[in-house]
Write a structure and sequence with these properties.
The chain is of the alpha+beta class. Helix content is 39%, strand content 10%. The protein is built from 12 helices and 17 strands. A hairpin with a 2-residue loop joins strand 13 and strand 14. Helix 4 packs parallel to helix 6. The chain starts with 26 loop residues before the first helix and ends with a helix.
């Protein structure tokens, strides 16, 4: 019987040491794969230097949050900043100027779509006749001027531009000015209590500094705010993305304003923790710090997903500022999450105010109705999320004794992942994904088993290979 050794058998290394050693990727193989993949993605996939989420294999179809034209690129992750960051990681690992040029092209595309209000919306349209064009700072746009922090839109652009500015030695005046303009606008959008709105068009108006409390009215029928995007928000990890951008801005520019804004953000998160019996965090608050409605399927409630995100953000702030006060809310929040776990070990997106019952929605035509029943949930939204309590608990124990947050993985595991990635590259320099039925970011409509290209996969794989050759 002939034994055929495949990469899958390399998981048996503990039984047969050295059996698959010859098949593990070498540094040279990883470098070659990186370049082939980058030349394909930058050379054939990019449009105006930028990227969307997904592509058909023949590149005739493109998707961001919905179908995208050839002149549209996406800012929201995993769009242009995500791919650009991967190119920067590859440049740092290899010192190959090709990657720096690819990153510069992506950064320049973002500069084109920076709004007059200083930030970005979810996409950029280079067709001046398109209805999707916004009010760009370069004067070549029109229409809306809504800088958005939703889903990391402006934050990811800032993070990438700041790092691109540094990689270019601060010599690209256009990229440098866009980065500092965006940071100035971000600071001007911070409320006195340290929170941020979901969207801004101009510097925010001062508001009172208050702790979070439960509303004393019927939240189901009262207290709705039409312009909820003006209110302080945590939805979709707004504050986590902001914290990361501020930390990086301070590291690169050494401007004390960014650490001051980070401290104000930490103070806000402490204030925004709900009181017992639900000491977690809500998605959105009014200026009296009551949880409020956002979209018609986003009710007030204490949010499991946002609470996990805030715990991680508080640990980052505490570590960056060397200040343990930002760890104090975490044990109460973790205890609430533990006692709120669903029977399957997941965490609900919403828990009803004060009763703590998991709260869902049912959709009938275009109308949503509150329910405690999870058997008929709309499939366009994440009503439940995986528990990260174990990982967060491990990070908290390290943070509590002032140890840096540990990086996941081992050299052996990284080598095995790099080998799989090298082997998965096809002869055209593509990493091809196959649709398995799970909801895609942007909700591209694909048939089960349909093959496509993903900016997230490209960026992840290029970054892992960069880590592999740099270890």
């Amino acid at each position: 019987m002939q034994l055929q050794i495949t990469f899958g058998l390399c998981s048996l290394l503990l039984l047969w040491p050295g059996l698959c050693q010859a098949q593990l990727a070498t540094r040279d193989q990883a470098v070659t794969a990186m370049k082939q993949a980058a030349e394909f993605y930058h050379g054939q996939v990019a449009s105006h230097g930028g990227y969307v989420y997904h592509y058909s294999l023949d590149l005739s179809q493109r998707w961001g949050e919905g179908v995208a034209s050839k002149d549209q690129i996406w800012v929201q992750p995993p769009g242009t900043p995500t791919v650009g960051m991967a190119f920067l990681r590859a440049y740092e690992a290899t010192d190959d100027p090709y990657y720096l040029q690819a990153a510069t092209d992506a950064a320049t595309a973002l500069v084109y779509g920076q709004l007059k209000s200083g930030g970005w919306t979810n996409s950029i349209d280079f067709d001046p006749t398109s209805p999707s064009v916004a009010d760009y700072r370069n004067g070549r746009g029109r229409g809306k001027n809504n800088s958005s922090l939703d889903d990391g839109q402006t934050q990811s652009a800032i993070l990438f531009l700041v790092q691109a500015d540094k990689a270019l030695g601060f010599h690209n005046a256009e990229i440098h000015q866009a980065a500092v303009t965006a940071l100035d606008a971000l600071l001007a959008a911070q409320y006195p209590n340290g929170g941020f709105p979901q969207v801004w068009t101009k510097p925010v108006e001062p508001q009172p500094i208050l702790p979070a409390t439960f509303p004393n009215y019927d939240w189901r029928t009262e207290g709705k705010v039409k312009n909820y995007w003006d209110m302080v928000t945590l939805n979709d990890n707004v504050t986590g993305y902001v914290a990361i951008a501020l930390v990086e801005a301070h590291r690169v520019y050494d401007d004390p304003r960014y650490l001051a804004a980070l401290r104000k953000l930490g103070d806000f998160l402490v204030l925004a923790q709900m009181p017992e019996p639900q000491p977690g965090w809500a998605q959105q608050y009014d200026f009296e710090m009551h949880p409020i409605w956002a979209r018609k399927f986003e009710p007030p409630g204490v949010s499991g997903d946002e609470t996990q995100e805030v715990i991680a953000t508080l640990m980052l702030i505490s570590e960056t500022l060397s200040d343990p006060q930002y760890l104090e809310p975490i044990p109460r929040a973790a205890a609430w999450l533990n006692r709120s776990l669903l029977p399957d070990g997941q965490i609900a997106r919403y828990y009803e105010l004060q009763t703590n019952r998991p709260l869902y929605m049912e959709r009938h035509a275009d109308k949503y109705e509150l329910t405690y029943d999870d058997s008929n949930l709309p499939d366009h939204y994440g009503w439940k999320t995986a528990s990260k309590l174990r990982e967060l608990g491990q990070q908290f124990e390290r943070a509590r004794v002032s140890q840096p947050i540990a990086k996941a993985g081992s050299p052996k595991a990284l080598t095995q992942r790099a080998t799989a990635i090298v082997n998965a590259l096809d002869d055209q320099g593509r990493w091809v994904d196959e649709f398995d039925g799970q909801r895609l970011v942007g909700q591209a409509k694909m048939a089960l088993g349909e093959k496509y290209l993903s900016s997230q996969t490209f960026s992840d794989n290029l970054t892992i290979l960069s880590e592999f050759i740099g270890q």
